[in-house]
Amino acid sequence: MNFNTNYNEINLDYCRASTGKRFANYIIDIIVFYIVAFGLGIVIGILKPNLLVGVDDLSLRLILMLFYAIVMFMTEGMSNGRSIGKLITGTRAVNEDGSDISFQKAFVRNIVRAIPFNALSALGTPSHPWHDRWSNTIVIDEKKLALQTQKVDLFDSVKNQTL
C-alpha cells in the first residue's frame, strides 16, 4: 500500500452542489424575496403612498433586481455564504479553494445577479453561473463536504497507525 498520496486535499468538484439543488435554492430565495418585497411595498404604501406613483414597469423591475442583489448580499455576507434557500437545501457558497467567502466576495457575487440573463448562465451540469465565475466562488453541498472530510480523517488515521 502506498500512503504517499496526499489525502489532505478535499475534492471540491465532488462537493459541488447539483444543478437541482441550485435551482431549489433559487426558487426558495426568490419566494422569500418576493414576500419581503411585498411586505416592504405595503409598508411604503402606508407610510409614503406617493413614493411609488409614476414609477414605470421597467424602473420597478430594475429597482427589484438591485434590491434582490442587495438582500442576497446581506444574507450571504452575514451568514457565511448561506441564503435561506441554501440553509434549507444544505448548501453554502465558498471560495474556489474551499475557504469561507468574505463580505467583498458576497458583494461581487450578488451584484452580478442583477445582470439580465444571469439565471440562464446557470443552465448546464455542473452549474457554474456568471455570479460564481466572476467572483471565483462555488456552491458546495455540505453533506458531500462532510463525507470528504471523514475520508481525509480516515486515511490520516490509517496512515498514522501504519507508520
Set down the secondary structure blueprint.
Blueprint: H1 12-15, H2 19-47, H3 57-78, H4 84-89, E1 91-95, H5 103-111, H6 130-133, E2 137-141, H7 142-162
Helix pairs in contact: 2-3, 3-5
Poorly predicted segments: 1-7
What is the helix/strand order?
HHHHEHHEH
Number of strands: 2
Main sheet: strand order? 1-2
What structural keywords apply?
163 residues, mainly alpha, two-stranded antiparallel ribbon, 58% helix, 6% strand
What can you see in these coordinates?
It is a single chain. The chain is mainly α and 163 residues long. The protein has one domain (12-162). The protein is 58% helix and 6% strand. The protein has a two-stranded antiparallel ribbon. Helix 3 runs antiparallel to helix 5 (103-111). The longest helix is centred in the N-terminal third of the chain and has 29 residues, at 19-47.
Short description:
This protein has 163 residues and is mostly helical. The protein is 58% helix and 6% strand.
